[in-house]
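Hi all, a correction to my earlier message: I attached the wrong file for Immunity protein 22. Here's the right sequence:
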Amino acid sequence: MDLPLHDPLFWARYTFAYEDEDRVGELADQIEDVDLDDDDEDVEGAEVVFDVGGGCRLVLDVALELDHHELGLIVPGLATPASLGWDDMAQWHPHALRWSELDLICRAVDPEPGPALALLCRFAAVFEDDDVDAAAAAVDAAYASLRPAGWTGYWPSAAEWLERNDLRGQAVTWHTDGQGRHWARQRDWNQEKDFYSIRQGPDKFPHDELRTLLEAARR
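and the right structure:
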C-alpha cells in the first residue's frame, strides 16, 4: 500500500475536509490546488487492492490531485474492475455498499479495524436497520490505528463520516429480486441528505459480481 496513511495532510485531502479551513486548521495552508490545463492529462494516482479471497478483490483508485476516488471490484472471470461507485466534488456516487457488507469485507481483509475500513468507509452508508453505534466505533478504531502518536490536529472521525453517510430517516428503501440482487431507492428526494448511488435498480450495477465477492468474504 503506497498511500501515506499516517500523514494528516493525506487524510485532509482524501476526505475533502480541506475544503473547510476551520475544520483542518493549519493544514489548509499546506494543501495547494492543482491547476490542470487541457494538455495536462498525467495526474498521479494510486491503486490500492484489497484481497478478499477466492480471487475476489476490491480495487480503490485514489487521485488526490483530482479529488476523485473510485471503487471497483474484480472476481474470477472479470478482466478489469467493475465500478461500484466513486466520490468527488462534482457528480459523486459514493453510496455503493451497506455497512454490513463493508464490515464483512473488511473483516475478511483484516480481522481488526485498520487501513481497509479507514479508506473504504466513504463508500458505505448506514440505514435504519444498522447498529450505528457499533459501526461508528469500528470506524473510529480504524482511524485511530493510523493516527501518529501525539498528533492533536485534524484527523478524520466517525462523526465526520456519518455527516455524509448516515441515511437513516432519509426515505431510502431497499429492494430485492430474490436472486441475491439488492438495491435501494429514495422515495422522496426532498430530504436533508440524498442517496447518491448507481445501485438504484437491478441493472447498471455489478450485483452478481458483488454477491460473489461477499460470498468469498464469508468463507
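Sorry for the mix-up. The beta strands are 46-53, 56-63, 68-74, 82-87, 97-98, 124-125, 172-176, 182-186.
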